[in-house]
Design a protein that fits this description.
Elements lengths: L1 H12 L8 E3 L8 E5 L5 E5 L4 E4 L5 E4 L9 E6 L2 E9 L5 E4 L9 E4 L4 E2 L3 E3 L3 H14 L5 E6 L9 H12 L3 E5 L2 E2 L10 E6 L6 H14 L3 E5 L6 H6 L6 E6 L1 E3 L7 E3 H17 L1
Parallel strand pairs: 3-12, 3-13, 13-17, 14-18, 15-16
Antiparallel strand pairs: 1-2, 2-12, 4-5, 4-9, 6-7, 6-9, 7-8, 10-11, 11-19, 15-17, 18-19
């Protein structure tokens, strides 16, 4: 559904973009989408999938990825009987269940009900990870001359699409540089309002030469940024690193509070810095 939404949006909006992309999709790309601009030297990867729950048996729920929601959270979805808005509950062992006026069909996906809130300096909503990563890409597309944009699937629950997408863009255009347009965490070293985060590592360790190149471009741009160093967490960059292809990659994204909860919150200045730095990076890489 999200891929088709993006296809329709891009076909409508690209007349306002400085350069027109080629849209690449189909059964061989499953639910993913590639945009090719000009003569690409680098790619941006942005995942489209979300955390949530799958309906199991009776009223049991199985996590998709790693959702972090409290009992009482509103969940939405749709099965063969119609639209669903139910409530999350937890048993004494911490297992997730739903309460609803009828049984929900097995295998139905449920996600957080959207409650978008905005203040003068922040936005709060479920799924800023990774809707903001997608928005960032669409902002870059407005002026992008040369580059590849890849909208991927399954990042939140194990991956699986980035390998064949990377193989395609590597063989087709010899693209070997990648930016990961995703949202990271506020931590003891990454603060809200201090700029976009450039991740030097997470559970995966990208090649230092490439990270240094990204940092050098950021320093010269004078766009606000922060350096992130973590030992846990992963992204589409981890899949690139395991792809068997010689990709350099770097995760660059705004930090958020309360990741994977219904209350994800991001500072607007960090989002604007993310937009600006991606535009600069795609010019210089």
């Amino acid at each position: 559904m999200l891929r088709d939404f993006l296809i329709n949006f891009i076909k409508k909006e690209k007349k306002n973009w400085k350069h027109k992309p080629e849209l690449i999709y189909g059964e061989e790309f499953q639910d993913c989408l590639i945009l090719k601009f000009g003569k690409p030297r680098a790619a941006i990867f942005a995942h489209m999938d979300s955390v949530g729950f799958t309906v199991r048996y009776t009223n049991q729920l199985v996590p998709i990825g790693s959702p972090d929601a409290e009992a009482g959270t509103k969940l939405t979805g749709r099965d063969n009987l119609g639209e669903i808005e139910c409530e999350l509950k937890m048993d004494k062992e911490g297992h997730a269940h739903y309460t609803f006026g009828r049984a929900i069909a097995r295998g139905t996906s449920l996600t957080y009900k959207i409650d978008f809130q905005e203040t003068s300096d922040s936005i709060q909503s479920p799924y800023l990870d990774n809707r903001l990563g997608i928005l960032n890409v669409l902002e870059v597309c407005k002026t992008l001359k040369d580059g590849v944009v890849v909208f991927s699937c399954w990042e939140e629950h194990g991956g699986g699409s980035v390998g064949y997408l990377a193989n395609y863009i590597f063989k087709k255009w010899n693209v070997r540089q990648a930016l990961i347009s995703d949202i990271t965490w506020i931590s003891d070293g990454v603060e809200p309002g201090k700029g976009v985060a450039i991740s030097m590592r997470d559970r995966n360790v990208p090649r230092k030469n490439f990270i240094d190149k990204i940092i050098s471009i950021a320093q010269k741009s004078e766009i606000p940024f922060q350096l992130e160093v973590e030992g846990v967490g992963s992204s589409d960059g981890g899949e690139l690193q395991r792809s068997g292809l010689p990709f350099d990659w770097c995760f660059v994204g705004a930090p958020e509070q309360d990741a994977h909860t219904p209350h994800e919150k991001v500072h607007k200045q960090d989002v604007l810095a993310m937009f600006s730095l991606y535009r600069e990076l795609m010019k210089k890489l």
